[in-house]
Amino acid sequence: MAKVEYTILLPTYNESENLPIIIWLLNQYLSDYAFEVIIIDDNSPDGTLGVAKQLQKIYGEDKLILKPRSGKLGLGTAYVYGLKFARGQCIIIMDADLSHHPKFIPQFIEKQAQTQADIVTGTRYSGNGGVYGWDFKRKLISRGANYLTTVLLRPGVSDLTGSFRLYKRDVLRQLVEQNQSKGYAFQMEMMVLARTMGFKISEVPISFVDRVYGQSKMGGDEIIKFATGLLSLFWRL
Ligand SMILES: Nc1nc2c(ncn2[C@@H]2O[C@H](COP(=O)(O)OP(=O)(O)OP(=O)(O)O)[C@@H](O)[C@H]2O)c(=O)[nH]1
Ligand SMILES: *[C@@H]1O[C@H](CO)[C@@H](O)[C@H](O)[C@H]1NC(C)=O
Ligand SMILES: *[C@@H]1O[C@H](CO)[C@@H](O)[C@H](O)[C@H]1NC(C)=O
Ligand SMILES: [Mg+2]
C-alpha cells in the first residue's frame, strides 16, 4: 500500500451494528486517498471487536488496525491512545454511529489544502450545517452546552462540542500533551487549547444525524461531567 496519508480514529463502544456500515462508507468515499482506520474498542459487551476482526479480514490488516482496550476508559483517552499508532500526517476523528457521514471527509481535506489550517472542524451551527433526528431536549442540551462554552471560553469557532474534525497529526499530539479531559469535554478542550496555542482553525458545515443503531450514551452523568470539564477549563484560562 502507498504511504498512509490519513488516519481515521474510530473509538467504539457497542457499535457492532454500525461498524460494518461506517467502514463500507469510508471505503466508498475515500477511495482516492491513502488512508487507514484505527478502531479503539473498549471491550464492548455487544461484540464490536469480533465484528471489527471480521471486517479486518475483508479490508486487510493494513487498512483496518485494531487497538482494543480492556474496559470503557472514556472517549478522550481513546483518541489519545489511538493517536500513538497513527501513521498518517493528518488525523480524522469521527463517531462510529453514523452521525458523522464520511462524505464530508473529502471536504475537510480540500478545506485544509485551501486554507493551510492546522485543524478543520465540522460545524453544525453555521452555513448549511444542521442536526437531524434529535428531540427538543437533546437539541437544547447541545445548543446550551455550545452556547455556554462560547460565552465562557470565546474560542472563535462555531461548534465546540462536535467531534468530527481533521487535525494535522503533530498539532493534535501537541494539543493532547497539554492535559486531556477523559470524556466528552475532550472536543471542547482541544478547541480552547488550539486557540490559546495559536493554531489555525477552519470550518466546514456538516449535517449531523442521530445515531442509527444502538443506545445513546449521553445521560445525566455525561452532562454533569461535561459541565465540570467546562468549568475547570474556564478556571484554568
Ligand atoms: N473506545 C470508546 N469509545 C467510546 C466511548 N464512549 C463513546 N464511544 C464512542 O464514541 C463515539 C461517540 O459516542 P456516542 O455515544 O455516539 O456519543 P454521542 O453522539 O454524544 O451520543 P449518542 O449518539 O446519542 O449515543 C461513538 O463511536 C461511540 O461508540 C468509550 O468510553 N470508549
Ligand atoms: C452495551 O451493550 C450491553 C449489552 O449488549 C448493554 O447491557 C449495555 O447497557 C450497553 N452499554 C451502553 C453504554 O450502551
Ligand atoms: C495532567 O495530566 C497528568 C497526567 O495525566 C496529571 O497527573 C495531572 O494532574 C494533570 N493536570 C491537570 C491540571 O489536569
Ligand atoms: Mg453519537
TrEMBL record:
<keyword id="KW-0808">Transferase</keyword>
<dbReference type="GO" id="GO:0006506">
    <property type="term" value="P:GPI anchor biosynthetic process"/>
</dbReference>
<keyword id="KW-0464">Manganese</keyword>
<keyword id="KW-0256">Endoplasmic reticulum</keyword>
<protein>
    <recommendedName>
        <fullName>Dolichol-phosphate mannosyltransferase subunit 1</fullName>
        <ecNumber>2.4.1.83</ecNumber>
    </recommendedName>
</protein>
<comment type="pathway">
    <text>Protein modification; protein glycosylation.</text>
</comment>
<dbReference type="GO" id="GO:0004582">
    <property type="term" value="F:dolichyl-phosphate beta-D-mannosyltransferase activity"/>
</dbReference>
<dbReference type="InterPro" id="IPR001173">
    <property type="entry name" value="Glyco_trans_2-like"/>
</dbReference>
<comment type="function">
    <text>Transfers mannose from GDP-mannose to dolichol monophosphate to form dolichol phosphate mannose (Dol-P-Man) which is the mannosyl donor in pathways leading to N-glycosylation, glycosyl phosphatidylinositol membrane anchoring, and O-mannosylation of proteins.</text>
</comment>
<dbReference type="GO" id="GO:0005789">
    <property type="term" value="C:endoplasmic reticulum membrane"/>
</dbReference>
<dbReference type="GO" id="GO:0035269">
    <property type="term" value="P:protein O-linked glycosylation via mannose"/>
</dbReference>
<comment type="similarity">
    <text>Belongs to the glycosyltransferase 2 family.</text>
</comment>
<keyword id="KW-0460">Magnesium</keyword>
<dbReference type="GO" id="GO:0046872">
    <property type="term" value="F:metal ion binding"/>
</dbReference>
<comment type="subunit">
    <text>Component of the dolichol-phosphate mannose (DPM) synthase complex.</text>
</comment>
<keyword id="KW-0328">Glycosyltransferase</keyword>
<dbReference type="InterPro" id="IPR039528">
    <property type="entry name" value="DPM1-like"/>
</dbReference>
<dbReference type="Pfam" id="PF00535">
    <property type="entry name" value="Glycos_transf_2"/>
</dbReference>
<dbReference type="InterPro" id="IPR029044">
    <property type="entry name" value="Nucleotide-diphossugar_trans"/>
</dbReference>
<keyword id="KW-0479">Metal-binding</keyword>
<dbReference type="GO" id="GO:0006488">
    <property type="term" value="P:dolichol-linked oligosaccharide biosynthetic process"/>
</dbReference>
<feature type="domain" description="Glycosyltransferase 2-like">
    <location>
        <begin position="7"/>
        <end position="175"/>
    </location>
</feature>
